[in-house]
Prior knowledge:
Number of helices: 17
Number of strands: 2
Strand order of the largest sheet: 1-2
Structural class: mainly alpha
Distance between the termini: 100 Å
Shape: flat
Helix content: 55-70%
Radius of gyration: 38 Å
Amino acid sequence: MALLHSQRRRAICLFCELAGPQSLRRTSLTARSPLLQSGVLEPQYPRGSQWRRSKATDSHATLAANRKQAAPKSHQERRVEVSSVHDPLLSIEEEANAVLASPSKAEEEIVLRLIRKCLVIASDVSKDPGTSPKPQRVDDNTPASALLSLEEDDIQSLPGRVESVESPQLRKESIATVSRIAHKLLVHTPVFIDPELLKEYTTLQTLLRRPDTLPEVFQLYATKPAAITGSDPVQYRTPRPNRLNAAIPAPIANEALNSAIALKDLTSALQIIETTFATPSFRRLKALRLAGVPMAAAALSPFAAYIIADRLSAMQSSMDSYLATNVAFTGILAYLGFTGILGVVAVTTANDKMKRVTWADGTPLRERWLREEERAAADLVVTAWGFKQVSRWGEEEGEDWEILREWIGLRGMILDRAELMEGME
C-alpha cells in the first residue's frame, strides 16, 4: 500500500517533480530518468542518510539559482542590443547639430564622414528581421532543451522587458531619424555638395527606402550657391545651373530612379527624371563626352583629306598635279560627308530600344539623340506602372496613368503609338 501511495503522489513531469512540494521531491527517480542520464541532476537517496539528502537539496538549490540568474543576464543583453543602435545615432545627431549651428563654411570631410556613419547605421536598421538566421538549438528531446525553453518563456514574460532592435516601431523611428539627419546636412546652406557626397547620400536614402528627398537634393546640387573659403562673414558664389559639372551622373540618377520605381512612388520618379536626365547640363555633358571626338574628327577631316589628295596627285602622270589634287580632295570629302550623314541618321532614328514611349513627329534628330536617356527613363517608368502582358498594353486606366500620359506628351513624346504596337503594323 505504501508503494501504491507513493506512485499515486508522483508528479507527471520530472521537472515539476523537482520544482513541486518537498514531499514530491523526496520521491526517488528511476535509473532510466533522462535527467539522471544527462548529468543535469543527481540521484535521490532514501531518507535514512541525512548527508545525502542535504547534498541532493544543495544540487536542487544550485539549479534553481542558476535558473533565476538567467533572466537578468538576458535582460541586460537586450538593453545592450538596443543601446548599440541608439548610442551611435545620438552621437551622430550631436555632431550634425554642431555643424548646423555653425554659420561658417562646413568642411566637406566632416559632412562626408557623418553621412558614412549614417550609412553604416542604415545598413543595420534596414535589414529585414525575418531574413536573419535563427540560432541553432539543441535537440528538443533532450532534458537540457526542455530547461532552456522554460527559461526563455520566463524571460519573455518579464514585465520590464526592453523592446528589441528588431521591433518594427523601433526600426521605423531609427530610419526616420537617420534620413532626417542626412537631409538636414545637405540642405544646410554652408554645406557644399560634391559628387562623392551626393553619391553617398543617394545610396543612404535608397537603402532607407526614402527616395522622396532625392529630387530636392538633386536640384540643390545644380543651383546651390557655393560658400567662399575664408570669407567672414560667409559669402557665396552665384550658381550656374547649366554648367557641365552641375549634371547629375547617370549611375546616381539610375539608382535613385530604380528606388522610386521599386516603391511605386510616381511623383518621386517623375521629379527625379526632371532633375537629372532632363536638365540642360546633362545634355551638354553628353554632347561633350560622346560627340566631342567625332566633331573634332569632322573638323580636321578637310585638312587630312587635302594632305592625302596632294600625295595621291604626285603618284600619277595622266593629268595636271593641281587638277588631280582637287579631284582627289573632292572625292575624299564627298565619301566622308555622305558616310557620316548616313551614320548620324542611323544613330538618331534607331528605335529598337523603345518599348512604349517614342518621339513625336517633327522632333529634331539632334534633340532625339541628346534626350535619349530622358525618353528611356520615361519608358522604364511606364513599363513598371503598366500591364506586364504585351497584349494588354494601351488598356491602362486611372489617375496615375493619366498623369503619366500627360507628362510624357508635354515633353514631345508619345505613349503607345498605335503603328508601333504589336499586331498594328
